[in-house]
Write a structure and sequence with these properties.
By secondary structure, this protein is of the alpha+beta class. It has two domains: about 140 residues, no CATH class; about 120 residues, no CATH class. It is about 45% helix and about 10% strand. The chain is built from 16 helices and eleven strands. A four-stranded antiparallel sheet has the order 4-3-11-5, covered by helices on one side. A three-stranded antiparallel sheet has the order 9-7-10. The protein has a two-stranded antiparallel sheet with strand order 1-2. The radius of gyration is 25 Å and the shape is globular.
């Protein structure tokens, strides 16, 4: 019999046995435990109900439709309950971890999309040590390591999709699943549009949020502006593919099959970024105000993300100290920061001296 494991929530919080804990904390933790227990029962019984003939006798189109009507939820939610419940029958270790509260329903939903009898133990261990919000990317990296490039590319191609629905306020929500390369191209175009467009204060007196600026960029894609000389869409953007010894990724770290890199390499622009013996990118310096392409690649390889908040998109190169003070541009005095941070500072006080992110490293096309 497997050894009982304590829920990460209970073992990490320290709130359960602490008598001095605030009452709302104790109540919330107890409610979360009940919710997790009830969720386990719901998916189990939902799967059993779907495999019975009770929903047929009731005259329902499907078991999911009956559950959706009874629980007053969307049919897609009911289908997911049934799917998870059925999958857990063939994944005893995951079902046991779910029952003990070692993994949450959020993690189980992700696990059951990829786990099999052969890889369950490895993926479950990955789920136990990875926060729920990061599990999807961790499994993507695992798939990159354990699948051939052709298998991964076929899998991603078969899972592509696009759907939309009308919300109660009349707006439309899109859900799109794209292969990494196509997603990288779309993200690059959206980031380029946001970086090149100065936000304006709205009639309400509020500045548009970053999410709203992205939405405006998506809307602009439906109305492409043509370049007068070429007749094609305006603007130039780059999609960066990192090719390293441990695999290939997009600039934000999303794994990408090596076969995709091989396919775009003949038409891409290849740059080599040399590292020293300790794995640090080699320095480059200049007295120009704006960083050179090589300096940008060195700083991006070193910092990877915004040094303040950890974001990986809409980044700028900030001088620390400001160029007005130092009069030079060297790698040691450049830092990656979110574009919205200097932009917000400009609204309140002054605009930081920075250079917009245009090119990164390795392979662009």
């Amino acid at each position: 019999m497997p050894t009982a494991r304590r829920s990460p929530l209970l073992s990490a919080s320290g709130f359960v046995t602490d008598r001095t804990t605030r009452p709302r904390t104790r109540t919330l933790l107890a409610t979360i435990r009940r919710l997790s227990r009830d969720q386990r029962q719901v998916v189990q019984v939902a799967a059993e109900f779907a495999d019975s003939d009770e929903w047929i006798v009731a005259g329902s189109a499907t078991a999911a439709h009956w559950i959706a009507l009874a629980a007053d939820i969307e049919v897609s939610t009911a289908r997911e309950w049934i799917r998870v419940g059925r999958c857990l029958r063939d994944l005893p270790a995951s079902a046991n971890a779910f029952a003990q509260g070692v993994v949450s329903y959020s993690k189980v939903r992700t696990l059951t999309r990829f786990a099999t009898a052969d890889n369950e133990a490895e993926l479950l261990a990955l789920a136990e040590r990875t926060p729920a919000g990061h599990l999807g990317r961790s499994i993507a990296a695992w798939l990159e390591r354990t699948s051939s490039a052709q298998q991964l590319e076929r899998h991603q191609h078969s899972r592509r999709s696009c759907s939309w629905r009308t919300e109660p306020d009349g707006m439309t929500t899109f859900t799109v699943r794209l292969a990494p390369l196509m997603a990288g191209v779309l993200i690059a175009r959206l980031e380029q549009a946001v970086m090149k467009t100065s936000p304006r204060c709205e009639e309400s007196g509020h500045w548009p949020t970053l999410a709203q600026q992205y939405a405006d960029a998506v809307g602009a894609l439906a109305e492409p502006k043509l370049d007068r000389r070429s007749g094609g869409p305006t603007g130039v953007f780059e999609v960066v593919l990192h090719v390293r010894g441990d695999g290939c990724t997009l600039d934000d770290g999303s794994p990408i099959p090596g076969s995709v890199v091989e396919r775009v390499a003949p038409t891409g622009f290849v740059r080599a970024l040399i590292h020293d013996a300790e794995g640090r990118p080699i320095n480059a310096s200049s007295r120009r105000r704006h960083p050179t392409v090589r300096q940008k690649r060195v700083v991006k390889e070193r910092d990877q993300h915004c040094v303040d908040c950890g974001a990986s998109s809409l980044l700028e190169y900030d001088h620390v100290p400001d160029y007005a003070v130092s009069g030079r541009t060297v790698v040691q005095e450049l830092q990656l920061r979110c574009a919205p941070l200097p932009r917000e500072a400009a609204f309140g006080s002054r605009l930081k001296t920075s250079a917009h992110l245009k090119g990164l490293d390795s392979l662009t096309f």
